[in-house]
Amino acid sequence: MPEVLVVDDSKVMRDMVVACLRPYPDSRFTQASSGLEAIEQLSLKPYDLLVLDLNMPDIGGIEVVEFVRGQDHLRELPIIIVTTRGDEASRERALQAGANRFMTKPFTPDSIQGAARALLEKTPAEASRG
Amino acid sequence: MSGSGEFAEFLPAYLAEVDELLASAQKDLLAVEEAVRKGLAQPRAVRELFRALHTLKGLSAMVDVEPVVSLAHWMEASLRLADQAGGRLPESSVEPMVEGLRAIELRVRQLSAGKTASPAPANLLERLEALGPQVLDAAPKRARPVKLDAEAAFASRLAPSEREQLEGGLAGGQRALRLDFVPSSERAAKGLNINTVRERVAKLADIVKVLPLSGAAAGGASLAFALLLLTRAEDAVLLDAVGGPPATVRSLEAAVPAGATGVPGEVPGEAPGAVVGGVLPPGAGLPGAAVLEEELDEPEVRRGGGLLRVEVSRLDEAMEWLAALVVNRSRLTRAVAALTQAGAPTRELNAILQENGRQLRDLRSAILRLRMVRVGDVLERLPLLVRGLRRATGKAVRLELDVGDAELDKAVADRLLPALVHLVRNAVDHALELPEERQAAGKPPEGLVRLSCHARASGQLELTLRDDGKGVDAKAVAKAANAPVPDSADALLDLLCRPGLSTRQEATRTSGRGMGMDIVRRIVVEQLGGELGMETRKGVGTTFTLSVPLTVTLMDAIVFECSGRRYAVAVGTVEELIDVVGVVRPAGAEGVGLVERRGTAVPLVSLARLLDTAASGDAGAGTKALVVRQRGEPVAFAVDRLLGQQEIVLRPLEDPLVRVPGVAGATDLGDGQPTLVLDLGALGAARALRRKRAARAGEWVS
Question: At the top level of its lineage, which domain of life is listed (chain B) (predicted)?
């Protein structure tokens, strides 16, 4: 049963992401409203997938990715960045920092589900190759 | 409309969240404007404004509201530049931004009304797009006198605006500090997590940035959060807010060596640069865990903090279920009463019923509390409204809001806001004089509009809106209304609230007041069952007082019978129940008599006649009367029989065709029959008004 952590400061956006991923078999969702809360959650419990917004209060998604990749136990955690148009310039930075996928809003349920499936069902090495 | 995409079902939630985002964006934009006027940077407000618009854009893209996406996009783009330039916006950018927010708000309103959002105005988009280069020109080019402790502040991880904010705060006499918080599962279980810590600290300081730090620390902690703050609060207070040790505080100012702050619980000898590269060194400041457990053992912490956003429709649903329970309980009560009357042993049943009643009451207040919103949040739109009026009228106006922590039901708040907007608009548009007129009258050039409110124990919210303008010109109003000059403030208010008066006044500009006052009264008195009062002095100003119930959905009511029909009134509106003895003067043709109450004569109104249900000859024949205040004066309403007191669910009569003054709504008392809930004060007033009009009509005819 994959544990998914969905991080966005917008409650509606988190709900949308969860609604898109819910059909994925047996997944369980935790929501966090900031990058800091996400980091705290990740330090308390293991997750199988992180869906992350870029622009949030205090620290942005890229800083979260950098932090996560700096932790031994989180180095392989699959990360999907879901962000607003206008953050295109951040794509390179996010992927360089270690994000596995980069999707811009508006996304479709199919696209995010496809990304989640690819990351959850592949081996870590495959996932990092995309 | 939009929302045609995959996420159309999220539209209601979208509208609710966008509403909040717009309210906070408006507040931040006003803060930015204030700073611009003073030639200062406002990095925090710029950043918050940017984030609100960024989120708005993303959400609008998801539900396919392209006009909002475009507007938000260009505003966001220049705010991003402003953030990078240290939180400074040029003065020329404020007006287009205000227009941009207004344009977004308009489109969101169109969506909530089920319409299609109109396209974004092309010239506004062009102006917003042109802001970018102007923002870059406004970037500061001067050197800063204050230096930060680069290591303690993680200088490389600070955005320019964050750095600007820290340095600006230091230069302004605030302390720039780093407060470290170490989270753990135990603390999270007790409600102390980064979110609650953030909320607590935000009450004591401006949080500029929070950075996560990883590394093995004593006590098994592998993670800490460094909160970079600007504050005037004491170290001990800050430490307390994050649960005490192992939290630490240190200064961010380069000139002051860390460790010199004398923080209780701080590790002696810790060097300023002890935290290097974002790694918490082993053993850094983690003593006293046992003390921490003690301190955490407070109910407030145990219960956990944090905010949960809930759609109003879900609360309405909970309310509906509760309403069904209340109605069911009434049925149960009747059934038990019937059993008792039939001689069955019902003692235990009655005890259960009593307990059940208490539980329902508790549940009711719990749900009602969930529906309460802060009045301050409701009024967030008013400063922007006044700003717009200031520009449109050329008047200098200061808006003061003194609303404290008062709260009221979301449904009441939603209805009340348009009334307040009308009153504030009237105050600025009509009541306040132009600066030169004010000076000629010996007043300061800037006018004052002050809105204050507080909740009363009786379940009412009292609001006062005062202006120091020219006061209402009774003669001019009377002339415009083609009526005699009123002899009291109440009578003047009656004239002002006449539908249609506003149009004439607006056309002739004869007086300062009147725009939409009929709407204000309709909202306050008829829709909310409240009271509206006014005091005015020529040349000195006008004060409106509004008293509205904090909540309207569930209430304790007195149930009575009149001409064979049952009615209910809210207990809170009834001052006293009296027996109709000692009638000083019986009711005449008008159905109004006088009854003695503790040595004073009180008007006695036949409710049966008022409701036109009286059979001929029995007007005013009721044996009981409910005493209600009508414009501050007691009036007794005669009824046939009192049936008791019970909790009712008030259902508003939404259909405008059946909306009647004096009828607050309808309820089900448990037998499935609809019962009208009356507002006796409003009913009496409406009747008096009808009589006056009829008399006037008669004069014309003759």
Answer: Bacteria
Q: Which of B391-405, B614-628, B636-650 has the lowest mean pLDDT?
A: B614-628
Contact A86 B77 (CB under 8 A): yes
- B559, β-bridge pairs: B568, B644
Q: Tell me the nearest-neighbour CA distance from B58 into chain A, angstroms.
A: 5
Evaluate whether A50 touches A5 at the Cβ level (below 8 Å). yes
* Close Cβ partners of B376 (under 8 Å, ≥ 6 residues apart): B401, B403, B404, B405, B406
d(CA B512, CA B429): 8
A31's CB contacts (< 8 A; 6+ apart) are: A5, A6, A7, A11, A14, A18
Q: Which residues does A32 contact at the CB level (< 8 Å), separation at least 6?
A: A5, A6, A7, A38, A40, A41
B646 DSSP β-pair partners: B557
- Count Cβ atoms below 10 Å from residue B52 Cβ, excluding itself: 27
Q: Does A34 touch chain B (CB under 8 A)?
A: yes
CA distances from A92 to A87, A97, A102, B139, B460 (A): 10, 8, 9, 27, 57
The terminus-to-terminus CA distance of chain A in angstroms comes to: 22
Contact A70 B183 (CB under 8 A): no
Tell whether the model's pLDDT for residue B4 goes beyond 60. Answer: no
Choose the mutation target among B214, B228, B311 for the interface with A, i.e. most A CBs under 10 Å.
Answer: B214
Task: Evaluate the CA torsion angle A22, A24, A25, A28 in order and state its sign.
Answer: negative
pLDDT at A11 over 70: yes
Render B279-347 in DSSP notation, one character per residue: BPPTTTT---HHHHHHHH-SHHHHH--------HHHHHHHHHHHHHHHHHHHHHHHHHHHHHHTT---H
SS3 string, B453-484, reads: EEECCCCEEEEEEEECCCCCCHHHHHHHHCCC
DSSP B267: P
Q: Chain B interface, mutation test: which of A7, A8, A9, A10, most B Cβ atoms within 10 Å? A: A10
How far is residue B301 CA from its own chain's centroid? 27
C-beta atoms of B223 and A16 within 8 A = no
Residue B531 predicted with pLDDT over 60 = yes
- Residue B458's contacts (CB-CB under 8 Å, 6 or more residues apart) are B572
Say how far apart CA B168 and CA B161 lie, in whole Å.
Answer: 10
In this prediction, residue B432 carries a pLDDT of 92
What is the three-class DSSP state of B84?
helix
Cβ-based neighbour number of residue A123 at 10 Å: 9
Query: Exposed e or buried b for every residue in A68-95, given b needs 16+ CB within 10 A?
Result: bebbeebeebbbbbbbbebbeebbeebb
DSSP, collapsed to helix, strand or coil, labels residue A46 as: coil
CB A9 to CB B51 under 8 A?
A: yes
Q: Which amino acid is at A25?
A: P
Q: What span, in angstroms and rounded, lies between the C-alpha atoms of B94 and B561?
A: 61
- Nearest residue on chain B to A62, judged by CA atoms? B157
pLDDT digits (tens, 9 = 90+) for B213-227: 876 543 456 788 888
Q: Which of B92, B117, B90 is nearest to B103 (CA)?
A: B117
Least confident of A38-52, B301-315, B512-526, B559-573: B301-315
| Residues paired with residue B179 on neighbouring β-strands, in sequence order | B227, B249
Contact across the interface for A13 and B58, Cβ inside 8 Å: yes
Selected residue of B2, B7, B279 to mutate for chain A interface (largest A Cβ count, 10 A): B7
- Rounded-to-10 torsion of CA B249, B253, B254, B255: -110
Asked if the Cβ–Cβ distance from B55 to A55 is below 8 Å, we say yes
CB proximity list for B502: less than 8 A, separation 6 or greater: B514, B515, B516, B517, B518
Nearest of B166, B168, B171, B161 to residue B85 by alpha carbon: B161
Residues B670-679 have pLDDT tens digits of: 777 788 999 8
Q: How far apart are the first and last CA of chain B?
A: 55
DSSP assigned state of B118: P
